[in-house]
Each structure stands twice: as C-alpha cells, then as structure tokens.
Specification:
Length: about 130
C-alpha cells in the first residue's frame, strides 16, 4: 500500500478515517497517473471533500462538499489557488469559530476571505511547529 508510506504528517496526526480517505485516493491515483505530485494532489482533493485542515491536522466537516474553487473545478480546467485545506466554502460563522480555536487575532473584524487567509496562515504555523521547523 504505497499511500501508507507517503502519508503526510498532517494526516498522520488526523483521525483514522482521514488517513483511510487519503490512502485510498492516493493509491487509486497512483494506479491511474503513477507515483508523484498528481497522485498527491488527487488524494488531497478527495480529503478536502470530507475534511478541513485545522491547525496541524484534519478534522471532519459536517457534510461532503468541495472546500475551495480548486476542488470544484472539473478535469481539464485551469488550476486555481487552493485554500490550503481551509474550507473556504464554509459559512463565515464556522470560519470565525475555527479562527477562534486557532487564536487568530482581529477575527471579529475580518471578512470571510480574510478569515480564510488568516486560518491558512495559522494552520501553516502550527504544522511547522508540529514538524519541528
């Protein structure tokens, strides 16, 4: 099972279901596209439909939907910037609550777009700390 060996550290720190989702999508993508970047991107796209990145790990969403514009696009369409695992499709209230859990300062005056960016930065900092960087 190549996906188990390729498991990113943020997913290692996540629930078993997130790990299984990523591994299954990764292994399927390896069969289709071969090992490499495309297999990883496919696995993350599948993960983002059910999970969102919060800090240094992935947590389940309340339902299944694409997390950002990149995940919504169809095959063969130009790539768009991802939100780094942040569920940019979530409500502003949900994003505010995630920002609150992550200790994002100034969140009460932020727009939805600003909350997404602030959560993405907070996630990157927490992931770097968890990796000892």
């Amino acid at each position: 099972m190549p996906g188990r060996k390729e498991l990113p550290s943020t997913i290692e720190r996540s629930a078993a279901k997130a790990q299984r989702t990523w591994i299954k999508a990764h292994d399927s993508a390896v069969e289709t596209y071969g090992e490499g970047r495309r297999a990883h991107q496919t696995a993350f796209a599948a993960l983002k439909h059910q999970f969102e990145k919060v800090g240094d790990h992935w947590e389940p969403k309340d339902g299944k939907w694409p997390s950002d514009e990149q995940a919504k696009r169809g095959a063969g369409q130009p790539a768009k910037k991802t939100a780094g695992g942040v569920d940019a499709s979530a409500s502003k209230q949900h994003l505010y609550e995630v920002a609150q859990r992550l200790g994002v300062k100034g969140r009460s005056s932020m727009s939805k777009q600003d909350l997404v960016k602030a959560i993405e930065k907070a996630n990157e900092r927490k992931t770097a700390r968890a990796r000892g960087q």
